[in-house]
Design goal:
The chain has 445 residues and is mainly α. It is built from 20 helices and no strands.
Length: 445
Amino acid sequence: MLIVKPLNDLAVYLTDLVQKRLWLKVIIGLVLGIGVGLLLNPSTGIFDESVAHTLSNWLNLPGEIFMKLAQMVMIPLIFASIISGLVSSVSDRLKTFGLWLFLYFIGTTTIAIGIGIAVAFIFNPGDFVRVRGGLTNVDVSTPEVTSSGGIDIPDTISNLIPVNPLQAILSGDMLPIIVFTIIIGIAITQLDTNHSRPLIRFIEAIQKICMIVVGWAMRLVPYAVFGLIAALVSATGIDVFVGLGYYMMVVILGLLILFCVYLIIYSIVMKQSPIEYLKSIKDAQLLAFSTASSAAVMPLTMKTADENLGVSSKVSDFVIPIGATINMDGTALFQCVTVLFMAQSYGVELNLITVLLLTVTVVSASIGTPAIPGGGVIVLATVLQSTGIPSEGLIVIIGIDRILGMFRTAVNVTGDLTATVVFNKCFGSSDKPSQLNSDYETNDV
């Protein structure tokens, strides 16, 4: 069989960023951005409103460039990675592997949504905002769920196969893109070596080109965070953080609980201490926290799974690219808490049927969420529309999304790594031990 160069070989483009403590630079940029934003805010009287607006637009430029670069390479990177994983791991058990992987991702996403619903109803962050005169300036009515508004399951399944793949790529509809990629990847495995070799080499070139671009984008991250936060604070003031601080704490609490669920899964499957697990994956977590893009750190995630966790590359090459696209548990939890937060803020009563509809919608939305900064908010408007909650309040959420995005991306990457450990235990080959590498030396980060 043709040997495919693994994507984790391209982690060299990211390792240098970890060694230079990118996460610390991001935190510094965040703090400095708040300070500069307060100085630029017209309420201080230091700068005129028009001058502050012009300066904030320039400060926002690095962030815009970073997000555009991440969006630009996301689809070709995931396309090439999934095909490489399929070609590398094709076997008689692939069909069963794929089915159980899908069911596992659906299960963990459902758990994440359950945690989100629980913390939202226990702590009621929206009531806190409404009492303080929050999102109450929009007329709303309680949403009604009718039988005609149900989900046509056969039609939904058939729509997963894109009639026009180019249209799906242009619209960024990730789930049909994944289905198309898997079909093409399986078809490539049916070719003889002479015909498949040039295709594989071309796909490897695409991966390397994408990672070069990602490496360029990563160097903008501290400046992007600085500029985005400065522009936000200069336009809204620090009140947006103070007023929504309780909501942010509820989201982070939910993510922490989900994080603990992953540690419990690891401990049960591997019968090992989760402390060693955390030490082995901290580089991938820190880079994910810094960039807020699970797709961008995918090569380092693969390298962490293979070298630090002893996962077979046949498993990680298949699980992680798909997980980085559809296993968005942290994003699903964030979307669920945010929908309930906004419903509470507007005074919208959600009955049991609507909450169940919300669960199904969030599962679908999280699967199709782009693995890029701000991806969770991009599809959140669709979730709000399905439950009859006004989407105007999203402008407030967008302001603090960058901070929450860092936390949920770190959780998403942890979920992907936990999935590789689980499936390596069940389906991995014997070429690598399914245990932590005791000789692993952690970087000083």
